[in-house]
């Protein structure tokens, strides 16, 4: 059942990529927002357009340390954590602390205010999955001591702590297992696949695809991800819910798509795959559709066009050649955003 919440909300990690979009959307819904961030990976630039809004407060603090929100809260969204491999490999201890001490502090805040707590977990809790697509009942296949474990295990612990709070203390909690998300506002040095491919294509550099490129990802546009988080906050479900797109694409086809879309002459260069890199990734979103009434609406091609347009509006690429495909009368590109360009079909499986 959905219970629309319109009171004040705390967003930890609110100056990050997804967090800043969530803050904007909450303000648009008429809610007061406290954005807590230490700017380790977030940026003031992401929320600059909200700084003068009377319903928005930026609280510079580390979620793992002592902090306090005095105004009444109806919802607490816990997003604070490094999320890209380049960031959490650079800050392994901080990432583990965000998932443990940070989650504990955010839960304590939610409990003190009687607020709904929403944990943004991750599809990484499934590891390199042996089930495809991944349902919330799947326990995962994770290397607990591999290089990615600082992120994977931090989120798995955060889920366990959140569930224990709910079962033991009756805290009102929800867990969103967020799959790969992309869109305007990603750092070009983020290290994740889409901003890396965009930067390389626009600079005319080789587009680096790991392994054979046959590994697949399902990538959700950020506006859809945010709507999923809001739907979870407005519900009373405590069970984990997958939030992601069912559009599955191989890494190689995605690189080709971005190259064509950006008008780039870059060639694809194959590099070694990182350790424990998942082979396949696609959510089963049946529970989200049934419990939350949520499903993504922005197709991959359209979302990438919007993302590219945003990048070109804010970044300078003097050597860039080619132009973005123009929109047609329906507001979409003159390519079919689900298949006319390479890579928008299902991924390939053995």
Provide structural commentary.
The chain has a domain at 9-182 and 220-243: Rossmann fold, CATH 3.40.50. The strands form four sheets. Strands 3-2-1-4-5-6-11 form a seven-stranded parallel β-sheet, sandwiched between helices. Strands 7-10 form a two-stranded parallel sheet. It is globular and about 55 Å long. It has ten helices and 13 strands. It has helices spanning 17-28, 44-47, 85-90, 92-113, 149-169, 193-203, 222-233, 251-261, 286-292, 300-314; strands at residues 9-12, 33-37, 56-60, 75-78, 116-122, 173-178, 181-182, 207-210, 216-218, 220-221, 240-243, 248-250, 268-271. 50% of the residues are buried. α4 packs parallel to α5 (149-169). It has 350 residues and is α/β, with parallel strands linked by helices.
> Whole-number average pLDDT?
90
The gross shape turns out to be globular
Question: What portion of residues is helical?
Answer: 25-40%
As laid out across the biggest beta sheet, the strand order is: 3-2-1-4-5-6-11
Number of strands: 13
| CATH architectural designation of the domain at 9-182 and 220-243 | 3-Layer(aba) Sandwich
Evaluate the radius of gyration: 20 Å
CATH superfamily of the domain at 9-182 and 220-243: NAD(P)-binding Rossmann-like Domain
Strand content: 15-25%
Order of helices and strands: EHEHEEHHEHEEHEEEHEEHEHH
Poorly predicted runs of 5 or more residues: 326-343, 345-350
CATH class (first level) name of the domain at 9-182 and 220-243: Alpha Beta
Query: Helical segment tally?
Result: 10
Examine the coordinates and then state which fold CATH places here, giving the name of the CATH topology of the domain at 9-182 and 220-243.
Answer: Rossmann fold
| Distance N to C terminus | 40 Å
**Could you describe the largest sheet, including whether it forms a barrel?**
7 strands, parallel
Output the structural class: alpha/beta
């Amino acid at each position: 059942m959905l219970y629309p919440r319109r009171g004040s909300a705390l967003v930890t990690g609110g100056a990050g990529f997804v967090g800043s979009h969530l803050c904007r959307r909450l303000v648009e819904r008429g809610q007061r927002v406290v954005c807590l961030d230490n700017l380790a990976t977030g940026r003031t630039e992401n929320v600059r357009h909200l700084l003068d809004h009377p319903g928005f407060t930026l609280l510079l603090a580390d979620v793992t340390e002592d902090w306090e929100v005095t105004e009444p809260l109806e919802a607490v969204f816990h997003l604070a954590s490094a999320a890209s491999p380049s960031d959490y490999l650079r800050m392994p201890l901080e990432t583990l602390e965000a998932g443990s001490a940070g989650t504990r502090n955010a839960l304590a805040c939610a409990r003190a205010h009687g607020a709904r707590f929403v944990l943004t977990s991750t599809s990484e809790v499934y590891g390199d999955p042996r089930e495809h697509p991944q349902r919330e009942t799947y326990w995962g296949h994770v290397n607990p001591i591999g290089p990615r474990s600082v992120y994977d295990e931090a989120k798995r612990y955060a889920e366990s702590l959140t569930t224990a709070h709910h079962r033991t203390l009756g805290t009102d909690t929800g867990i969103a297992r967020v799959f790969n998300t992309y869109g305007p506002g990603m750092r070009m040095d983020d290290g994740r696949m889409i901003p890396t491919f965009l930067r390389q294509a626009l600079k005319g550099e080789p587009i680096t695809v790991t392994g054979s490129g046959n590994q697949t990802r399902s990538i959700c546009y950020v506006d859809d991800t945010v709507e999923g988080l809001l739907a979870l906050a407005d519900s009373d479900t405590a069970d984990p819910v997958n939030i992601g797109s069912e559009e599955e694409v191989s890494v190689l086809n995605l690189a080709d798509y971005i190259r064509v879309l950006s008008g780039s002459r870059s060639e694809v260069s194959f590099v070694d795959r990182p350790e424990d890199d998942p082979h396949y990734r696609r959510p089963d979103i049946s529970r989200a559709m049934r419990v939350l009434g949520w499903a993504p609406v922005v197709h991959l091609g359209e979302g990438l066009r919007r993302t590219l347009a945003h990048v070109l509006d804010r970044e300078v690429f003097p050597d860039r050649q080619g132009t973005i495909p123009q929109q047609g009368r329906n507001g979409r590109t003159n390519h079919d955003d689900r298949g006319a360009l390479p890579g928008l079909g299902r991924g390939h499986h053995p």
